[in-house]
Amino acid sequence: MKKVLVCGAGGFIGGHLVKRLKEEGFWVRAVDIKNHEYAAPPADQFILGDLRNPEVAKQAVEGIEDMYQLAADMGGAGYIFTGDHDAAVMHNSASINLNMLDFGAKAGVKRFFYSSSACIYPAHNQTDPDNPKCSEDSAYPAAPDSEYGWEKLFSERLYLAYMRNLGVQVRIARFHNIFGPLGTWQGGREKAPAALCRKIAETPDGGEIEIWGDGIQTRSFLYVDECLEGVRRLLESDFTGPVNIGSEEMVSINQLAGMIMEIAGKKVNLRHIPGPLGVRGRNSDNKMIRERLGWAPSRPLLEGLEKTYTWIAEQVAEQVAEHAAVASR
Ligand code: NAD
Q1: Which one of the listed residues 68, 121, 148, 223 is annotated catalytic?
Q2: Which residue is closest in CA terms to ligand 1's atom 9?
Q3: Does domain 3-178+223-245 bear CATH number 1.20.1270.10?
Q4: For 104, which of 2, 3, 109, 144 could close a Cys bridge (C-beta 3.0–4.6 Å)?
Q5: Which DSSP string do the residues of 255-300 spell out, in sequence order?
């Protein structure tokens, strides 16, 4: 049975990836600095360890053929764009990539998947909410809008350099806003779809929620199952990338809130407040993935939002019930 490694398996996408790889029949080693918050991934082996530590990294790569490197110090706009976590984000994520690639190459790992991000694209190409430019070839001259984006760009180059000099096989995807159940939905690292699902689930019909900025900023959001389909297709192809894995269904944040309200069967008012925002507009450009893999994500946003809202509404209801039980003691 082929042995594969998922780094960051205690996180959102990594947890889903372990499940998918098990369903495909792989032997899966999972590693993360923390356990999964919502559902233990069904890995054959789970190493609870810090991949900045060379000893943990060495242990993780032993006997592995394919590595999926998703571990990173990351979060949504409230984590990435305040500037408060810049040093940690750069140091922690770069250390993980330096370790995993170097020890992996020395241990004979054959293929490396690296999860980069749409955050590498130049901020100046994303000022018009209706017409952002995120084709893969627009990455340079580089001007990402966050240190998170700069670290991702550095690590893309690191993987490509190892491919050129050490002959390892590399696959790089630039994820665009992946969402779904079993992801962070509270606490400060959550991203827009999860944050809005939580706010709407917590608010009664006719109430009010806060939205950062004017809500006219645009994004596209990809449901996690389609993200994993792209990851697996990319790994099994002979295409290195970097390639976008994202949806082309661009919506404003106000529209996103409207879609979630429809799913929830509620109408809540939006109060726009200042907050960390990121670029004005961003959308995936799927021309390259279509050409190189003969496939691109195609499912409607609404479909994934329904599943995500249902899961988050359940989490909110459980939390409310727990608080009520504690208060009544
Ligand atoms: P996540 O935060 O849920 O998962 C990342 C995991 O890495 C976490 O479980 C975390 O504990 C782990 N980790 C952090 N530091 C570690 C360390 N020192 N040692 C071991 N594990 C460590 O994030 P996610 O949404 O699942 O994202 C997975 C990858 O995809 C990340 O590299 C992220 O940058 C990238 N990405 C995600 C999105 C998205 O929309 N979710 C978009 C672009 C890129």
Answers
A1: 148
A2: 11
A3: no
A4: 109
A5: HHHHHHHHHHT---EEEEE------S------HHHHHHHS------
